[in-house]
Amino acid sequence: MDNSLYRLVYYSRNQIGDDGAAFSSNVDEILAKSQVNNLRDEITGALLFNAGCFAQVLEGPLERVEAAFERIQQDERHGEVSLLAVDPISHRYFPNWAMGFIGTSEAHAKRFADVGSSSGFDPSRLSGEQIHTLLRDLAIEEEAA
Ligand code: FAD
After folding, report:
1. Helix (H) and strand (E) counts in the chain
2. Residues in domain BLUF (predicted)?
3. pLDDT tens digits, residue range 54-105?
């Protein structure tokens, strides 16, 4: 297997619904499963939820990142999954995160809103690079807190 590192970025629409308790328990399940699978697959990254959308960065060996994305695309807990970028990277940007979940605090929601407003809150108008940079900045802040 080619062990070169790649980064994949996508966004999708939440299909779980807005009910707080149901949403939290679904996200907890997704994160628990992601952390087990991603450790196994040498995948790291971060998942952001805000304004009804998920955005995720997955980084690791290409074959494994693509296999994870195949499974993720089939998942009915979200829809309209749109691939934004798949690029080679020289190093991991989320080395300590099998899958971090960010963006739920008020401060993070505001940062997402600031980036989102530049696209008219249409994630399809955000680039993979913008989403990657936002997630990386939020992850650095979260680790420092
Ligand atoms: P199993 O856990 O055995 O699941 C079998 C099947 O059941 C899968 O098709 C799964 O999609 C489906 N399933 C399981 N529980 C539910 C449920 N409560 N509701 C609906 N369908 C369900 N997986 C990763 O491995 N890494 C990630 O980084 C990752 N990120 C995700 C981000 C988002 C926004 C979402 C929605 C899902 C994510 N997942 C991730 C989960 C992924 O979609 C698959 O569910 C998971 O990878 C399947 O793992 P498994 O092959 O071990 O199958």
Report:
1. 4, 5
2. 5-100
3. 999 999 999 999 999 999 999 999 999 999 999 999 999 999 888 888 766 6
Collapse the DSSP code of 26 into the 3-class scheme (helix H, G, I; strand E, B; otherwise coil) and give the result: helix
Which tokens sit at 46? 């971060």
- The separation between CA 17 and the C-alpha centre of its own chain, rounded to angstroms, equals 18
> Which phi and psi angles does 91 have, rounded to 5°?
-155, 165
Q: Residue 4 gets which letter from DSSP?
A: -
Mutate to test the pocket of ligand 1, among 36, 48, 71 (most ligand atoms within 8 A of CB): 71
**pTM for this model (two decimals):** 0.87
The two structure tokens encoding residue 112: 């997402």
What is the dotted CATH code of the domain comprising 5-144? Answer: 3.30.70.100
**CA 79, 101, 121: angle at the middle one, nearest 5?**
50
19 Cβ below 6 A of ligand 1: no
